[in-house]
Design a protein that fits this description.
136 residues; alpha+beta; 26% strand; disordered N terminus
Length: 136
């Protein structure tokens, strides 16, 4: 198995001695395996990386992946909180795929990496309205 597929299997939680095709993926993944994972658009172009993810303290469920995008060598990059349900993990890519173009992402709610903004109730509404994912 090549290194790219092996890393993809590890990120998907299926790393082990037997080939990934012979066993079901595990439901859990370690946080350090998610941070730094590539994010691709639907055309397969890499558009950023997962910087960190935000977990609901009460439910323990991931709510957002903060994606780093733009800048050069990490300088001047911005952080874009993406609702977790927008990300689909694809083992063959070893990363997450989102149904967004770079232009749609560029216009999404974001903040400079050095000015971290907490996702409070108002920011949550702004983000979810932008992506058309309002909670009921």
């Amino acid at each position: 198995m090549d290194d790219v597929n092996r890393e993809g299997d590890m990120l998907a939680g299926v790393d082990g001695p037997e080939p990934a095709t012979n066993r079901p993926p595990r439901a859990l993944i370690e946080s350090d395996r998610v941070e730094g994972t590539a994010v691709y658009d639907m055309a397969g172009e890499r558009i950023g990386t997962v910087k960190r993810f935000l977990v609901d303290k009460r439910t323990g469920m991931a709510q957002y992946a903060e994606m780093a995008f733009g800048g050069f060598l990490g300088i001047g990059s911005h952080v874009y909180p993406l609702p977790w349900e927008m990300l689909d993990y694809e083992a063959d890519k070893g990363g997450y795929v989102v149904d967004l173009t770079e232009d749609q992402l560029r216009d999404a709610p974001h903040h400079p990496d050095e000015n971290r903004r907490l996702v409070d109730d108002a920011y949550d509404v702004e983000i979810r309205q932008y992506f058309g994912l309002m909670r009921v």
